């Protein structure tokens, strides 16, 4: 079993890439216009290539059960976490229109994208990516249904169209190719092309995560909200990890899905909560406070939770 030091060293390059994005954006090496362009490139081209390659060439998917259970778990655990965030926000004294909805969203959403991806690679090998992507399909569904319902208080039916995006389309196509065995007919030159794009997705995604934080650091005083940040630390980094770890230990799921749940348990708040808060009239500043606060502390708690989680879920050698 990896020691805390070894796990910390596995986390350090990931956090360093996020940290590098901050000065690149502040020095305008990544401009505001360039930020939007690069994000579109990542979401619409690079990530779909990474998903397609990971599922078709590396995944050990053998049947419909392997395909359906990960997104179901992602949806249920994320929706439950959002519900916990709602009741904690109420206990904190937040009200609708004054941060309750955004607090619930930001605390309830664990980082499910570019931060856990390289950790899955390091800990369990590239074949583990496919299980993370399938789990994330359920997380996306929870964000645009349960999450939108929490932020707006309205029916989330209109938000379902946001599920029709390039990464999920790539996942659907990849699963069809994988389950039908059609991948053997794809020429190697095509795989070389797909791989060249896929390897860019994670490092560029991490850089852009850091770059997205930069505009919010112009006035550091507005980020200092001890009441919000301390509660977010408690909920996101101390209480909610148990939801994922208990599922990993006691539910009859595959070893690969248990690995995903252990890594997800250790993650800080997700950047996407800022986007959802902006789109649906929430309080983006509260989301930024929670994201930055939990990410800063998670540098030290991620290795501890993963080390403990692997042993608790019965995955440690």
TrEMBL record:
Membrane-related topology note: Multi-pass membrane protein
Residues making up the signal peptide according to the UniProt record: none
Protein's cellular compartments: Cell membrane
Keywords: Cell membrane, Membrane, Transmembrane, Transmembrane helix, Transport
Transmembrane segments: 6-25, 68-88, 100-119, 131-151, 163-186, 192-216, 228-248, 260-280, 287-306
GO cellular component labels: plasma membrane
Similarity field: Belongs to the auxin efflux carrier (TC 2.A.69) family.
Protein name as annotated: Membrane transport protein
Organism encoding this protein: Lacunisphaera limnophila
Phylogenetic classification of the source organism: Bacteria, Pseudomonadati, Verrucomicrobiota, Opitutia, Opitutales
């Amino acid at each position: 079993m990896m020691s805390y030091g070894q796990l910390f060293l596995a986390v350090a390059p990931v956090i360093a890439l996020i940290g590098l994005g901050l000065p690149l954006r502040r020095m305008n090496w990544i401009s505001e216009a360039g930020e939007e362009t690069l994000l579109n490139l990542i979401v619409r081209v690079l990530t779909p290539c990474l998903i397609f390659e990971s599922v078709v060439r590396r995944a050990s998917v053998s049947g419909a059960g392997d395909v359906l259970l990960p997104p179901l778990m992602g949806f249920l655990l994320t929706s439950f976490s959002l519900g916990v965030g709602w009741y904690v926000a109420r206990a904190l004294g937040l009200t609708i229109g004054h941060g309750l909805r955004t607090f619930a969203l930001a605390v309830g959403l664990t980082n499910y994208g570019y931060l856990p991806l390289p950790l899955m690679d390091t800990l369990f090998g590239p074949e583990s990516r496919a299980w993370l992507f399938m789990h994330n399909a359920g997380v996306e569904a929870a964000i645009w249904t349960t999450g939108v319902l929490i932020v707006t208080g309205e029916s989330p039916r209109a938000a379902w169209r946001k599920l029709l995006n390039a990464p999920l389309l790539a996942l659907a196509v990849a699963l069809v190719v994988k389950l039908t065995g059609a991948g053997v007919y794809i020429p190697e030159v095509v795989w070389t092309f797909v791989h060249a794009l896929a390897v860019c997705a994670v490092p560029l995604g991490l850089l852009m995560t850091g770059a997205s934080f930069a505009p919010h650091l112009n006035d550091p005083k507005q980020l200092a909200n001890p009441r919000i940040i301390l509660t977010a630390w408690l909920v996101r980094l101390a209480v909610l990890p148990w939801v994922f770890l208990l599922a990993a230990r006691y539910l009859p799921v595959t070893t690969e899905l248990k690995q995903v749940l252990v890594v997800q348990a250790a993650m800080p708040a997700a950047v996407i909560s800022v986007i959802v808060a902006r789109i649906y009239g929430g309080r983006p500043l509260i989301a930024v406070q929670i994201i930055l606060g939990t990410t800063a502390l998670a540098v030290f708690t991620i290795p501890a939770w993963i080390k403990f989680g692997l042993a608790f879920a019965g995955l440690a050698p």
